[in-house]
Structure formats: structure tokens, C-alpha cells
Amino acid sequence: MSKVDVVLGCFYGDEGKGKVIDYLAGDADLAVRATGGDNAGHTIKVDGVKYAMHLIPSGILSGHTIGVIGNGVVMNPEVLLEEIDNLKAHGYDVEHYLKISDKAHVILPYHRMLDVALEKARKASKIGTTGKGIGPTYCDKYERCGLRVEDLYSENFAQKLGELVESRKALLKFYDPENEAQIDEIVDFDKIYRDYTAYAEALKPYVCDALTYLHKALEQDKKVVVEGAQATLLDIDFGSYPFVTSSNPTIGGIITGTGLSAMDIGNVYGVIKAYSSRVGEGPYVTELLDATGDRIRELGHEYGTTTGRPRRCGWLDLVTLKYAKRVNGLTALSVNHLDTIGKFDKVKVCVAYDINGEITEDFSTNLEFLNGAKPVYREFDGNFGDISGCKTFEELPENAKAYLSFIEEYIGIPVKFIGTGAEREAMIVR
Ligand code: GDP
Ligand code: IMO
Ligand code: MG
User: Fold this and answer.
1) 272, HSE (Cβ side, Cα atoms, 13 Å)
2) I want to staple 270 with a disulfide (CB 3.0 to 4.6 A). Which of 77, 226, 242, 330 is the partner?
3) Cα(16) to centroid(ligand 3), Å
4) Is the Cβ–Cβ distance between 129 and 107 less than 8 Å?
5) How far is it, in rounded angstroms, from Cα 170 to Cα 175?
6) How large is the C-alpha radius of gyration of the chain?
7) What atom of ligand 2 comes closest to residue 306's alpha carbon?
């Protein structure tokens, strides 16, 4: 039976997971999303066309890989139908290449409104959520009143929805009393029932028991890859809580979000950029609030795929990366944006934290620890030149090789994929 390859983000998201999945999909039969929702934005550039994938696994872009939306995902049907239409307009046969777990939870209009209202109500402690309703939908899931895809087809749908709409409307009005008229208009049972019945009809051909589907595929020796969304430091348990998302984007969430077992997992690829970025609030030890940070943002086009927000930028942090390796059991790395970092004369990488004069290489998500940590840097020569034509590690300039070799040595796992540009072909595979 073949093993499942997993692609995970190591920092705060947007490391280029989509691009790695797009490569792996080249010989994969199935690509699976396990966690998160349309807060994710995975960019793939194919023949000059830029795809921003939010819910549908990026692997589908291979043209022969079936995308599976796992049970751990929270799914906004309106967004999903838009994505389906967009792919169809680009010639993709989505009908035969998309499956949705009947156990995935459904995002309703009030989830999005509640997300925004809760964020507004947070005064000094804003999280900077994407406003897609992710947190409130997972809250309903864990409160055991959430709507799953299968509920849309159940005879109890109207009753369940009715109870939810009434209680959540009251909650929304509590948090956002000035918005009463709009709440009444949007959180209206008749309207939601009508819309979601129509969505359910449109999505019916895609819905399946994804767990059984995945296991049967593995038993038939099909190749499965899992497309992680978000990243290790955004994990609800292992991230910089409360500045995190509401799911487990780390390896455990891949298992609970798909029904695959730990024994099914093969390679676990950790994706990083040759620098780092973060969007939204929260601690960030190697953040550069100066011209260098601005230059990374401009050279790397670091603006959010989902919200368009400018991303905070800084040097690569190997202390955090080692933590991500431990949490996820990473077997190899993918380092993207080597082209971007190679434009700097000097490149720094954080090798330890200085905590009030004490040097440590051990990471903690304790906020006081993170807010008090000062990065200890090691400097490398940059100026990698034009590396767009390099197809092997050996062809890379010595400075680039030295930088990558140091990362490997520090973390203790190989760099398997190297991103040399945004296009699909701009990648070295070792
Ligand atoms: P994801 O959420 O982890 O899939 O990453 P995003 O798609 O949100 O952000 C990564 C950004 O970097 C996208 O704009 C990609 O097109 C771009 N990208 C990925 N790898 C490379 C690379 O090696 N070089 C350059 N220049 N851009 C890259
Ligand atoms: P991909 O898969 C970057 C961040 C948000 C916010 C926090 C909580 O593209 O790497 P949420 O809406 O999830 O409740 O927001 O998490 N966030 C991401 N940042 N990339 C993502 O996904 C993200 N998904 C959520 O910016 O700080
Ligand atoms: Mg992204």
C-alpha cells in the first residue's frame, strides 16, 4: 500500500505550500485538504495564469488529480461553488475531479458576521482574522451544534438550522447591537434555508464518505498527497495562542481531518520561505520593521492571497523551524523564494534567542517568552544572481548552496525542494 505524502506550513502560513502540492500532484491520484477553510489562499502560477485556491485542493490543477475536501475542513458552499465555476471556466473537469466529505462542517452567513463582530469587540487583543467565519464555525463544531454537509440532505435540516439561526441571531445582536437591521436581513431563516438548499443541490454530486474513499484508494495503491493549510505557528494548540487559527494545521490535524491513520503517513514535507512572513496580529521574533522588511515585502510580493493585506516580513527563524520539525515529524524541507532572498547583499538567519542575556535554541509559544526574545543572527553572503535557469542544486551559486546547507545542518533534515520563482517550473527537486 502506498504511503501518503503530507505538505505542511512551518511558520505563519503562505510559505508556498500550494506550489509544492502542485509539483507533487504531477504523479498523485488524490490531493486532500484536511483543515481550515477559505481562510487559506494557495497560489499556483500555471502558464502565466495565477490561481488562488481557497477550498479546492491545489492538486486538482494537474488535470488528473482528484481533490478531496476532508472532514476537518470548514466549508463555505458559496465560496466553493464560485471556485468550482472559476475552474470550469479555465477548462477543468471539476465534476469528475472533486469530492467533499459528508462530515465537513458548513459555514453559514452568521459565522462570518460573528467572526467580524467578535474581532470588533476585541479591543487591545485583536487577532486579525480573515473574517471568513472560521473561528465561529469551529466553535459550533466543538459545541456539537454545527451543521455538517450530510445535514444539508437530512430531513432534520430545517429544524436544526432554525434552532441555530435563532440562538446565533441573538448572540450577534449582543456583540453588534448597532447592526440590528443588517443582522435581521442576513440571518433570516427563510433566506438561509432557501440558499443552502440550493447550494446542497448543486454540491450533491461531489459529496461522499471521504474516509472510506481515501482508504479504498490507498488499498488500490493510489498515490495520495495531503495539502496542509495555515501552518504550525497558527495551530490552536501549538501556535502563538491566541494569535492562531481555530484548527490543528499540524500533523495531528491531518489525521483527524481526513480519517487517514498515522500508519498511512510517509513523507512529511515542511514548507518555508528563505525568509519569513506573517499576516495578522501576534508575536514574530524576526520581524523587520525597517527598510529591509519593506524590501522583502516588495521583492517577494508579500500581500495576502485571501485578504490582500500587506504581510509582515523578516529573516528566517531556525529556532521556530526546529520546533516545527519536532511537532510535525518533518522528514524534509521545501525552501521557497530563494530567488527573492538572493537579491540581498547579506542574508541573516536566526540561530538562537537571547532571553534577558540567556541564549537558547529552544522554542516556546509562551507569549512573554516570544515577546521578550531577541534574535541572534548568523550572516551569510547573498547576491545569488539570476538562479531562474538552475535545475539542480549543484548549478546554484556557492553562496546559495552555503545558505541551504546551513539550514539542513541546523535542522537535521534535507532540503528536497527549492523554489527559484513563482512559476510552476521554477523549482529544483533533489
Ligand atoms: P501558501 O498559502 O503556503 O500556498 O502560499 P501563498 O500562495 O499564500 O504565498 C506564497 C507566494 O509566493 C505566492 O505568491 C507564490 O506564487 C509565491 N512563490 C512560491 N514559491 C516561490 C518562489 O520560489 N519564488 C518566488 N518568487 N515566488 C514564490
Ligand atoms: P495559508 O493556507 C496566512 C491567519 C490570519 C489570522 C489568524 C486567524 O494560505 O497559509 P482565521 O481567519 O483563520 O481565524 O485567522 O490566522 N491565517 C493565515 N495566515 N496564511 C493562511 O493560510 C492563514 N489562515 C489564517 O491572518 O492572523
Ligand atoms: Mg496562503
Assistant:
1) 33
2) 330
3) 7
4) no
5) 9
6) 22
7) 9
User: Of the residues 316, 337, 427, which should be mutated to test ligand 1's pocket, given the most ligand atoms within 8 Å of the CB?
Assistant: 337
Ligand 2 contacts CB of residue 279 (under 6 A): yes
What is the DSSP-derived secondary structure letter of residue 73?
A: B
C-alpha cell at 138: 469551529
Strands (E), 13-164: 30-33, 42-46, 49-53, 66-69, 74-75, 98-101, 105-106
For ligand 3, the distance from its centroid to the CA atom of residue 305, given in whole angstroms, is 6
Look at residues 401, 393, 15 and name the one whose alpha carbon lies nearest to residue 233.
15
Return the ligand number nearest the Cα of 249.
Answer: 2
Counting every residue written for the chain, the total comes to 430
How far the first Cα of the chain sits from its last, in Å, is: 24
Cα of 128 to ligand 2 centre, how many Å?
Answer: 9
Residues 6+ positions from 280 with CB-CB distance below 8 Å: 12, 127, 128, 129, 130, 243, 309
* Site of grid cell 462530515: 103
According to the model, what pLDDT value does residue 59 have?
97
Per the DSSP assignment, residues forming a β-bridge with 69 are 33, 100
The bound ligand whose nearest atom lies closest to the alpha carbon of 302 is 1
**Strands of the sheet with 265-273, listed across from one edge:** 207-208, 98-101, 66-69, 30-33, 224-227, 4-9, 265-273, 332-336, 415-419, 427-429
> What does the DSSP 8-state code read for residue 16?
S
| Cβ pair 408, 415 in contact under 8 A | yes
* Model pLDDT, residue 80: 98
Give the mean pLDDT per block of 10 residues along the chain (430 residues): 95 97 97 98 93 97 98 98 98 97 98 95 92 98 97 97 94 92 95 98 98 98 98 98 98 98 98 97 98 98 90 98 98 98 98 98 98 98 96 98 98 98 95
Q: Measured between alpha carbons, how far is 337 from 419 in angstroms, rounded to an integer?
A: 5
